[in-house]
Amino acid sequence: MRVAATLPGIAIFLLVGAAVCPVLPLHAAEPRGVVSEAELKAAFVPKFPLFVQWPAAAAKPASLPLVIGVLDGAEIMPHLEALVTGRSVGGRPLSLKVCRDAREARQCHIVFLGSGDAGRIQEVLRQLEGASVLTVSDAPDFASQGGMVNLVTTSRRVRLEVNLDAIQRVALRIDPQLLQMARVVKTAAPPSP
Predict the structure, then answer these.
(1) Residue-wise pLDDT tens digits, 112-132
(2) Whole-model pTM above 0.85?
């Protein structure tokens, strides 16, 4: 399935990612005066379908929602819920699902893995091997450890790291426009004994 990237959609994504999103007060936009890091990271996730092509087998009928799953992401969940509820991308409604395990995550198009337990993240990634699920996290070194998209905060900005090898292994295709905003990383070799 190819979700067409429309000019307004690209513009919105680029605005969210402009200057790779500084985490600074936005007094005019927010009455409380500050956008949290979790809110900023959440803003990226529902935009990814504009830049990802799933294989036909994983695309499911266009009438069904694009499902964004969250596993161990309590901090980002309320922000994603606010961004996803009642919204659509490329004519398909977005749906948010709390996943308890990798089996439930396999039913999603995108899964955000919370940064809590590095061992659990590695186990979930192993269990998702072969599934056409875009994995996203803000865990340290997520992309270099086999995850697909890492939301990295450096110098008060959110930057993208993308592991093309992990993405291509499950037949997902990423639009070059997204890659221009990202740092491409490779899966790190396991440490020698």
Answers:
(1) 999 877 788 999 999 999 999
(2) no
- Output DSSP code: residue 68: E
Q: What is the dihedral of CA 42, 47, 52, 58, to 10 degrees?
A: 70
- Kindly report, residue by residue over 15-46, the tens digit of the pLDDT: 344 434 433 333 334 455 678 899 999 999 99
At residue 183, what is the residue type?
A: R
DSSP 69-125: EEES-TTTHHHHHHHHTT-EETTEEEEEEE-SSHHHHTT-SEEEEPSS-HHHHHHHH
Mean pLDDT computed over every residue of the chain: 82
What is the rounded distance in angstroms from the CA atom of residue 132 to the CA atom of residue 170?
5
Q: Decide which of 3.30.450.20, 3.40.50.2300, 2.60.40.10, 3.40.50.970 is the CATH code for 7-184.
A: 3.40.50.2300
First to last CA, the chain: 42
Specify burial of residue 192 (Cβ count, 10 A radius: 0-12, 13-18, 19+).
Answer: exposed
E strand or H helix at 185, and its extent? strand 182-185
